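# step 3/5: fold
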Amino acid sequence: MLTKVKNTIEKYRMLEKGDTVVIGVSGGADSVSLAHVLNCLKEEYDLHIILVHINHQLRGAEADRDEAYVMSLGEKYDCDVRIFSYDVEKIAKERGLTLEEAGRELRYEAFYKVAGEKGKIAVAHNINDNCETMLMRFFRGTGIKGLGGINPIRDNIIRPLIEVSRAEIEGYCAENGLEYYTDYTNNIDIYTRNKIRLRLIPFIERELNPNIVNTLYRTSEIMAAEDRFLSDMAQRAYKECEISPKRISVEKLKKYDPVIQRRIVRLGFVDFSADLHDISYSNVENVLSLIDKESGRTIELPHGLRAVREQNAVYFCRSKETKPFSYDINIDEKKYYNELGAYLLLTDKKCEKNAKLLYTISLDYDKIVLPLKLRSRMPGDKIYIAGLHGSKSLKKLFIDSKIPMVERDSIPLLAMGSEVLWISDMKTSDRYKAKDTTVNYLYMYLLEE
């Protein structure tokens, strides 16, 4: 088995000389054999090994026994050991997760903490785990990527035992006199994975295919290779369709086959979520439905995301509830407004030279009827534009300026009734802007805190 594992390491270039390797060790056969194998290769690769064990506080004395055993392995192999103890049941409730999900999150949080930026994390998934994972994903519904099984290497996570069977691991432990402990929960078929391992796979081996574990591993290798090919194609297609960051051209998207369209859409989520497991087939199809919808239609998505059809594009953004706002503005009162991210001051006096000015406009005071308001847009709003020899509705101005719909309600306006004097970061009304003939000035200042 040692030779087989070394071939896997070389095949996927999992290790380099001088690597720091964090090994997740539970005390079971898989992780104990992994620790032994990497200790055997320690000198050849000049490895700095750190054993990490997580006590989930779920199995009482058994959990304490496992922790003590991992500590003894550290002494045996003369390597560092880090122990983390968590009340997983409590944390699962706080995070709204199952015990299994919370345990996995906490394990990887600990692994990443110890490994840092440059360390590698070795976990003991084997070829049987890969078979179970593929079947779980198949029954839940998945595509090529899901049927690619467990990746032998992902980022800084390596799986040296991924081509070794559970039987080989147990044989290796017996051959090398390695003691290990079996978690009794592994033999309780109340969890989906346990049902697949204890009942489904033995049935398939007995009645349909005695070599199903290896058969599915070969299938996963084929699927993973095809997924890499399609991913590369989708990356190129995404760049071709991208008008600006996270904004995809509808016309260019339409030219691609639906297989690539779906992958392009999934790539649109990447900047917002590193984990795409919660992005379902229906989510992707809903986004693609925007291709044939009118401008302004939106789709709500997981992780607080939203897809919007806007003019000739579909774009992704964070969902945010923007409440209407409206403030009376008093002359000569300097006040901070969150919507502006600055202090606002309206006055007929010149601002002090040492004031930390961000923005200034000069208005014709004689044309203004108080009170003025700083507010969000309202139906009927319009602004005077000299080149048009008349007013333009804010709705049409925002459309022509390609301002995304989700941003329009959060743009601050200085208004007098339905007449808009100033639009933040956009425009000042040509009717109220001060000119050479202006006698009385009203200055609007935005100032730093």
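# step 4/5: annotate
The chain has three domains: 2-129+150-210, 245-318, 326-447.
# step 5/5: archive (pending)
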